[in-house]
Amino acid sequence: MQRLKFPTSLMRSHLLKTYLWPTLCIALLSVSSLSACSDEADNSADKDVSSDVDPEGDAGDIGEDADTGPAACALQRDCGPAEICVDAVCVEAPACEGVDKWKSCLEAFTEISPDLARRASCDPDTLHCRAVCLLDDDCADDELCTDNGRCVAYDGDITGEHPGGDARAPLKAGVSNTLMNFPIGLSQGGYGSRMATNHGRYVESLSATDGIMEGMFARTFVLDNGERQLMFIRLPVVFPTMALHEAVSRKLQELTGKDWRESLVLTGTHTHSGPTRFWHLPGDAAVSLGSFGTDEFSQEVFGWMVETTVESAQAALDDLSPAKFGWEIVESFDNDDRIASDRWGGTPPFDDNRMLLFRIDDAQGTPRAVMVSFGSHGTVHSKNYFTNDVPGGIELGVERALAQEYGQFVPVFYLNENGGSMSPRGDHWGHESAERFEAVGHELAIRALPAIRDMDMKDDIALKGVTHRFPITYETIGYGPEEWKIGAIGKGSHNNVYNYGALNCLGSSEDDDPATYFTPPITEGCLPVHLLNHHRPASLFARSQISVLQLDELTMITLPGESTMELGWQVAREARDRYGVDPLKGWVMGYAQDHQFYLSPTNLRGELPVYPGISTPKAPDEYPDFAFSWLQGGYEAGLSVWGWKFGDFMVERAMEAVGTFAGADVEYAFNPIFPSQFSPVEQPKFPVDTSNAAQVGTVVTQPPATVARMTPIEFAWVGGDPGAEMPQAPKVALKKKVGAEFEPITSLNLRPYTNRQATMLTRMRNNGDNWEWVVYWEEIQNFELGTYRFEVEGHYMNAAGERTPYQVQSEAFEVVAVDDIAVTVDAESPLPVVRGVLGYAPGTQLSFDSTSDDRGKVSGNYRMRHPLVPLGQSAPLLADEDIDPSGVSVTITDSGSGVISFDASDITVTTALEAVNGRADVPVTRFEAEAPGAVIVPGTYQVEVSVTDAWGNTGSSTIEVTVD
Fold first, then answer.
1. What distance in Å separates the CA atoms of residue 84 and residue 104, rounded to the nearest whole number?
2. What is the C-alpha separation between 179 and 221, in angstroms, rounded?
3. pTM attached to this predicted model
């Protein structure tokens, strides 16, 4: 069956533009022959199939060997592949022509039973109609409903005991930082604008990556109080999935003999530039669903994700040792929106302005790990380079501050909170791209470090966790049989409703008037899932899970998707009102345990959140009904599958989880379900090309012999195929010459200085038969001078198909000081007073200059020079840090003869905040030289100012001044 690929021009950010749905509808008609776009359902069938079904179960159609009559059945799964269960007996199912011809099955089943019609599909294997399962209840006791509506035996074990011991003991903790195993060339999850076809072996519906801006690590910490172990794993991905959580839990169960499903929290930072293809999208959908921003599912990539995540978990368990733990919630930490801001334009302002911090120490009180949590997005970067985006910049900024404070590397974990309605900031100062990551991280570190430094640490804490799994269907959410009626696209489903949900129901439209809202049926947008998935449930949207945990006195509630701030508060408030959970000691966090897209309220009402200093101006009750609702529209509503009632549904499921955690007598709305499990998909392994051993290690581009600070350079060599170079890219270390040897150095967070840190960009390019690898490197104004070289450790596939290591070194190069400090002398200063401004020469923003033979080519600067000044402006020489009066030389001459030379005591240097180019609070460094008693007679003079900063950088300027 042909599948539609979206042209790039039809994509924007996460989803298709609203006005493109009619175009998409026509395209769907061309591949599926559905009357999906008509205003009225076409009830005619291609042929009369209703006569194929004998509702009385006549045994005459069973065959000569079936002398016992038709088989009895209680469930559809009790019947054979080409049969259906009708009136408790199995009968032959109507024939159909293909998976996309489900409409004939719906019409045939409508004549028999509404339940059958609701579940009608065409089995592509038997070419007979079948009734899909919706719930695990539709399957046998040992089966779950998965694989787009099929009953499959659950092959996990959920009867094991929790990880932990028999008695409370002093706390232990383990921490790991594991490089993830995937190749450059794999697609990134997050943006539909990256849609492409035939772009490389590792991609299907999105463009291939060309490089990486920093190493992508899986980070894990585990806490053990003797009775219970809890584990948190943070992945640099757009979101985790329930299937990934289950696969990791099973592997841990094999390793430890314990059931981790209620003790493992799996989160994603929500970078939109991390590895993807591990989400179990239907492989035979009517369109390439991966074009929306996650690419198609790959069994091999899923395996890489599981293996890497388990490796990180195992490393943390192996690291268990005596520890102390502390936590603190910093209220109103970002009321000025310098870190993140409310982006949901369809609703009134709502931001909880909270930051949660964890600190894990060794027994002696030295930090081993820090966790930071608040709501944001990883959406600054959109190019074909892997990066953890702003979340990675946050981690790096705090790591640098901790390295300076404690003299060692301390890994930092960013766990997203209710970031569905939040955008990253850092643009207030004008920074872009990678320097913006650094700017946000620097600012966050300033706000977080005091609480981290003064945190109360304990070695005896309570640990507890529960995980609540639940089914998701049209009916379980609470829609009536004809309540969520289909709008313009996709009529023809059972009852003409969105039985399996819908996407982009409000397009990009927002109702920014709180007194009005969209009302169903939604006619703008709304692409039905039944149209995309051939009238079958998309299993990844049919179940989910929520965890509730206790760490000391803190209660954490996870939500499986992009929770908005509004929904996060609703969950916290309900937990308080129903079960006494103190919201000031509570934390609701999305992007954990699974992903159900955006999670927004049905109709948030009530009081203003109780968080001290909150910037949200008014209580929800002060606005009209549905002011805070899915029905206000925008991205946050459009990229959600289950419509306006899903918010309240999710709140109720969270309360079932909290009630279970609290030991209350909970009346569950649904029967227990299994964890997520999908049948393995048979796909060929990705190939790995062999390399010419004689060529591997050949240097293509050497660094210049001398390199000035703040000047980017490249080093390139012939390496291996990207599949052989996994994990990610060849390791490139920068080493400094000390005596006769080149020795390792560290980056600012005190990790080894390699391309695994945010120190250099690494890309690949294919040059005929050779894979060439390039590092793009730049250092800032105070980088230590000296002689350096790059040293590469990589791998290639030899002619025998063996992965073989190689090494290569660059020629040595000398890092020298810059000689272009910008010295601006004020020509209007009345001599003998000389005034001016000191700054480093402006840089240029990083540019991605893709060419046909070098898709990842870049130019410009990428390192931040000052947290308050972007690259396009002159960064100040900070008074008393970069420069003092002794570094400034001022001379007034007349025709080459000295008139006045100023001593250091005659010169002042100050840095103050000023308005520059319309932006307030920009640091500017000014100098003033004034010699007491000096006299200047009329004439023409040359004013010469030269500067040498604390790092050896120099600059000068001479102007001519006429004194009348």
1. 15
2. 15
3. 0.92
